[in-house]
Amino acid sequence: MIYDVVVIGGGPSGLMASIAAGESGANVLLIDKGNKLGRKLAISGGGRCNVTNRLPIDELIKHIPGNGRFLYSAFSVFNNEDIISYFEGLGIKLKEEDHGRMFPVSNKAQSVVDALISELHRLRVTIRTNTAVKRVNYENNTVKEVVLQNGEAIQTKSVVIAVGGKSVPHTGSTGDGYQWAKDAGHKITELYPTEVPITSSEHFIKTKTLQGLSLRNVGLSVLNKKGKPVITHQMDMIFTHFGISGPAALRCSQYVVKELKKQKSNTVQMSLDLFPSQNEEDIFQQLVRTTKEEPKKAIKNVLKGFVSERYLLFLLEQAGIDSQALAGQLQHEKLREFARLCKRFEFAVNGTLSLEKAFVTGGGVSVKEIHPKEMSSKFMQGLYFCGEILDIHGYTGGYNITSALVTGRLAGSNAGEFATSLA
Ligand SMILES: Cc1cc2nc3c(=O)[nH]c(=O)nc-3n(C[C@H](O)[C@H](O)[C@H](O)COP(=O)(O)OP(=O)(O)OC[C@H]3O[C@@H](n4cnc5c(N)ncnc54)[C@H](O)[C@@H]3O)c2cc1C
Prior knowledge:
The protein has 423 residues and is an alpha+beta fold. It has helices at 12-23, 39-47, 57-62, 72-77, 80-89, 109-122, 177-183, 203-206, 247-262, 280-293, 299-302, 309-318, 332-343, 399-421; strands at residues 3-8, 28-31, 52-53, 94-96, 101-104, 126-128, 133-139, 142-148, 153-161, 192-194, 198-199, 214-223, 229-239, 243-245, 268-273, 345-349, 351-352, 360-362, 370-371, 376-377, 383-385.
């Protein structure tokens, strides 16, 4: 038998592609090498599944720094609001949280996965799990067959490659699809970790001085050679035993990778602004007023509450201020230095955790060789790509899953229409 569409990979992009292909009336086979579908989707958003994000389209695109603009045409067909309506139509009510993030009201990622699987059953999509694909064969610039690890060849009119990137490989995403894309003539742009914790060998990191300390709503920047910010993200962060993590650090991570390369250096400077909405002079004046009010108390007690205690003691030391010194006896110069450090504490970072530990893979199948309205290959008839295998990556916050669902929808419906239009 010849399938109309074979979808390889049952992550969000492959699940949506199979559904869209099924809706077009195509005869669809979905193959996944894992024992379950949607394994990464089930652990996303802390196990609650951050299905999409409700920000306006232009904002969505800004939050997809890896080729987000490529998605403009796809969003004109199926976008975040369509994703929300789609899931509500399947009986999965969604709620909005901070920064536009959308989650199922049930707080259970599995409910999202199960709803998609029910749709596959309703549309009579054939599902084969525990089935690893080895390669895709092409003939005369057209897709011919999908060959499994066990040697079985499956004939098909079209193939949707939805096998994800290379991050968190225990969920099944082991980068198998890049070779199949190369075999079809596609370029794979350099792969690198994004949305990944940042490492540092600064003394205060090595001595674990700040390990476990979280800072809320700080401004975290990656600096260029001249000390100017390449990017600043205002969010929460946490110090770890190897460096920094948390939303602000994850968002900065890809810029660390790029700056290290650009500067051809082993380290890059980052800067931490504890009070992004105040300027240094205001902070200094506030310090002067506070120290005048209680001149006979130790500075560490006077500034209690101004900055969280561990960071306060750390910054006092960095500013060369004895934490026991009496507030009234401190020179203004010292207070100025403390205010400066509140606004701009600089430290060196030397990289990130590995691609395997990253939330998302940067790089992938070059979008220049993909038709943006169809997700089809510009080289091979009947070949489609969707999801993280593409050179598209967003910040965490629902942007990657949005990209996977949107590109999956397009790839599946176009593959279905293409295959069913053939004689
Ligand atoms: C812990 C974690 C949390 C995350 N949280 C968020 C978040 O909050 N917001 C957000 O937007 N993104 C988040 N992401 C990223 C998001 O989950 C991924 O971008 C998304 O799952 C990619 O979807 P995909 O369909 O392209 O690939 P994947 O979900 O990776 O699925 C690929 C599938 O292909 C299958 N496969 C691979 N090779 C083969 C083969 N040879 N044969 C057969 N099958 C194969 C795999 O088994 C897998 O099921 C998170 C990622 C992780 C790891």
